[in-house]
Amino acid sequence: xxxxxxxxxxxxxxxxxxxxxxxxxxxxxxxxxxxxxxxxxxxxxxxxxxxxxxxxxxxxxxxxxxxxxxxxxxxxxxxxxxxxxxxxxxxxxxxxxxxxxxxxxxxxxxxxxxxxxxxxxxxxxxxxxxxxxxxxxxxxxxxxxxxxxxxxxxxxxxxxxxxxxxxxxxxxxxxxxxxxxxxxxxxxxxxxxxxxxxxxxxxxxxxxxxxxxxxxxxxxxxxxxxxxxxxxxxxxxxxxxxxxxxxxxxxxxxxxxxxxxxxxxxxxxxxxxxxxxxxxxxxxxxxxxxxxxxxxxxxxxxxxxxxxx
Amino acid sequence: xxxxxxxxxxxxxxxxxxxxxxxxxxxxxxxxxxxxxxxxxxxxxxxxxxxxxxxxxxxxxxxxxxxxxxxxxxxxxxxxxxxxxxxxxxxxxxxxxxxxxxxxxxxxxxxxxxxxxxxxxxxxxxxxxxxxxxxxxxxxxxxxxxxxxxxxxxxxxxxxxxxxxxxxxxxxxxxxxxxxxxxxxxxxxxxxxxxxxxxxxxxxxxxxxxxxxxxxxxxxxxxxxxxxxxxxxxxxxxxxxxxxxxxxxxxxxxxxxxxxxxxxxxxxxxxxxxxxxxxxxxxxxx
Lengths: 309, 286
Fold this sequence. Notes:
The structure holds two protein chains of two kinds. Helix content of chain A is 36%, strand content 28%. Chain A contains eleven helices and 14 strands. In chain A, strands 6-7-8-3-9-10 form a six-stranded mixed beta sheet, with helices on both faces. In chain A, strand 9 and strand 10 form a beta hairpin. Chain A is elongated, with a radius of gyration of 24 Å. Chain B is mainly alpha-helical. Chain B has one domain. Chain B has helices at residues 4-10, 16-25, 32-55, 61-80, 85-90, 93-97, 103-136, 141-168, 172-197, 202-208, 213-228, 248-267, 271-277. In chain B, helix 4 (61-80) packs antiparallel against helix 7 (103-136), helix 4 (61-80) packs antiparallel against helix 11 and helix 8 packs parallel to helix 12. The longest helix of chain B has 34 residues, at 103-136. Chain B starts with a helix and ends in a 9-residue tail after the last helix. The chains are: A alpha/beta, B mainly alpha. The A-B interface holds A 9, 11, 14, 16-17, 36-42, 45, 48-52, 70, 73-74, 76, 78, 80, 82-86, 88-89, 93, 96-98, 100-103, 142, 145, 208, 308-309 and B 13-14, 16, 19-20, 23-24, 30, 87, 90-92, 94-101, 271-272, 275-276, 279, 283-286.
């Protein structure tokens, strides 16, 4: 379990992170969302023991980042947003080097290296020099490096940056798999739809403050308690608007386009079906009927102002 | 519980640096600049061996050790200037810092890598030195070993100085420039200035040049000749610092300074402080 307690970082007069707190359980995939300069990387670097917090702390499986950083380091895999690899070593040598650093017994290393290479789909590049790998492959190698010591927590800072769509999809699958393996995964990213796909928990940070934290759907529901139903009709949309406005659960109906309606709605499924039935029975010719769902991007835009420290 | 030797040398995962340095500097297949430099070195080395063989005893071995020391002054910084500053520039430094490895192991690994590569160079230079010593016949084995020890320990000092500079510098070329600059100042410019100021003062001149390895090597050679001609020497010609104080004291002093610099280099690798230190003054991005 990871407990982040009131983590704060100050650089002289600048407060980069203002008391961030959250708790994650094994298997959680946490999407850390924020604009550039919001404090995501600083928070991740503090949890990874790279930066010393000004105050507050984080505890990973009982190990405090301030009191026992070496124990924390043994339990984390950190992938920075920008990283360099040693270009004069082979892929397996690079992984063997980090396996040695993480005190993986020498007799276990070959099998572990084979496993992480297979997991990251780099088996064919085992004997290639690191410098010969493409950007996507280097990204996967960095992730493989994070996994050689079977860490409990993975800190992935913008892992998808610079990757092509296929590589992103593969990375997404890999992160989901890591979550299934019981690891806590913290992913920071700007690509919100992707995060919503595989994160079960998100945190939105701006100017060093955590604005929202929790289950993706719950956050969306909390910020958008009403839903919007959109329908496209064949005829008499204005009359239809008057009809549905009086139905239970309907908060209001407005014209959208030539024959479209946007219905603000907070009823249940039965009430929603009643709306459809009324439109059909009214002979308006229902061409389309769907729920306009708020997503993570809507939530992010609603919560944040775009201001940076 | 691991001993210091096990932790820093025998079981230090940073020993991979030995293979990296060997592959990078002693093997063809790296960058074209490395390949060209290596080819040039091999050509020069062949030339030195042929020259020593052709001179048939006219060349004493100590000047070859002096030449080797000069090479160390060049190649040590050239190999090590990016050891830590380069990791920072390449952004691979963070990956080491979040690993459960001590800063001492990082410094020791980098140092071992460079010393192993330079050690191979020193072993290669031993061939012309031995040929010259056998052919020349006048240099004692003790003087030869002492001169080699002065040269190698000075090499260790230069490497630890470079590592220290690399630990302190933001960019590798800053570390390289600072190292070459300080070596030039310490070995040539400042002694030359001081000697010119106290022109004719033999005692000051000797004291200024005492720690210079080239002076020490030259004195080891001349001390032998002085001892041989002791009967004919008068008191006025005797040096202020006796020949016996050249060689072994230098080895100890160089080793002491090298150890001190490595310890200090390790102490400068405070990651959190460095993070702040290396942020630009007007940096406002979290």
